[in-house]
Design a protein that fits this description.
The protein is built from three helices and 14 strands. The protein is of the alpha+beta class. It has two domains: 174 residues, Sandwich (Immunoglobulin-like), CATH 2.60.40; 33 residues. Strands 1, 2, 4, 7, 8 and 13 form a six-stranded mixed β-sheet that branches. Strands 5-6-3-10-12-11 form a six-stranded antiparallel β-sheet, with helices on one face. A two-stranded antiparallel sheet has the order 9-14. Pathway: Glycolipid biosynthesis; glycosylphosphatidylinositol-anchor biosynthesis. This is Phosphatidylinositol-glycan biosynthesis class X protein.
């Protein structure tokens, strides 16, 4: 149990999540406001992504090459083709950038994608719940109060410039909302035969066109 005087000194961070844009391809925006100054510290969040949503590792690598975002996926290469009912949970460690308008505020966005769900009998959308992420700090030159911040195991480096592991710390926080809900459209079971038939016909037509073009314009020895 934390003494009242220590608990009063430990000002919990505030975490806010937003899903930007519409459809299956969204941007997850995470904002953190710390209760104390974290000058010289790296700030990140560790989010649990349920099977209904994923981050494309190839898209993430391209964004990192252009210094658009800094993030680590665990596992690092999830199956982007798997439907929701065959996909595992994924951990996302997302580094946050400081907000120039607020010395204690940090934010970052990362593209996320909804997975296809199993067809249902009714046309109601499926709900994907994103719980509030864990706030992480890594301070190489600053001292963190042991009563407020506790060491945690995180498989991600503190800096994007190197892969040297470091000691992350975490504390409790006040989420703006306990969970964020993503509504995903779900197909109807009664449409499955029609969808399969159209898919098969489209595949056969495309294969026939490719074969015809190959026979007409190809060079065979």
């Amino acid at each position: 149990c934390v003494p009242p005087d220590v608990q009063a000194a430990c000002q919990d961070p505030t975490v806010t999540q937003e899903l930007l844009q519409e459809g299956f391809h969204r941007d997850l925006l995470v904002k953190v406001e710390l209760g104390e100054d974290a000058g010289g510290c790296a700030v990140a969040v560790r989010a649990h992504l349920p099977p209904g949503i994923y981050v494309d590792p190839y898209e993430l690598a391209m964004l990192q090459q252009h210094n658009v975002t800094k993030a680590v996926l665990i596992p690092d290469v999830p199956d982007v083709e798997a439907p929701e009912y065959l996909a595992p949970d994924v951990q996302l460690v997302l580094s946050l950038d400081s907000d120039p308008r607020c010395s204690r505020c940090f934010r970052a966005a990362v593209p996320v994608h909804a997975r296809y769900h199993r067809p249902a009998r009714h046309s109601q959308p499926a709900s994907v719940l994103l719980h509030s992420p864990q706030v992480l700090l890594c301070c190489c030159h600053s001292h963190l109060a042991a009563e407020c911040w506790q060491p945690v195991e995180v498989g991600a480096p503190c800096s994007a410039e190197g892969n040297i592991p470091c000691q992350w710390h975490s504390t409790t926080h006040r989420p703006a909302q306990e969970e964020l809900v993503l509504e995903v459209p779900v197909g109807l079971r009664e449409h499955s035969p029609l969808v399969c038939a159209v898919t098969l016909l489209s595949t056969l037509l495309c294969a026939s066109l490719i074969l015809a073009a190959t026979c007409k314009h190809g060079h065979f020895s």
